[in-house]
Specification:
Length: 78
């Protein structure tokens, strides 16, 4: 039973992702799309959202946490 709870996925909504990452709404979506005018905004490592409804998306918590950990490692190496 404990193993099942630990493997449960948690979906974060956009406001929660903003709070966890410190990024704004526009920055989150800029990281998801290539823009020829601002190529440095795109981040292919940023977690992709999953559809949770007809007009709703969320992010898998474990993926967001892994991205944050990678950002910390990247900043500490520099």
């Amino acid at each position: 039973m404990t193993a099942q709870i630990q493997n449960a996925l948690t979906i974060l909504r956009r406001k929660q992702v903003e709070a966890r990452t410190g990024l704004s709404r526009s920055t989150i979506y800029a990281k998801l799309r290539r823009n020829p005018k601002r190529p440095s905004d795109y981040d292919p490592t940023f977690p992709k959202p999953v559809a949770v409804g007809a007009k709703a998306v969320g992010w898998i918590e474990a993926e967001v946490e892994a991205w944050l950990a990678a950002q910390i490692l990247k900043s500490r190496k520099a």
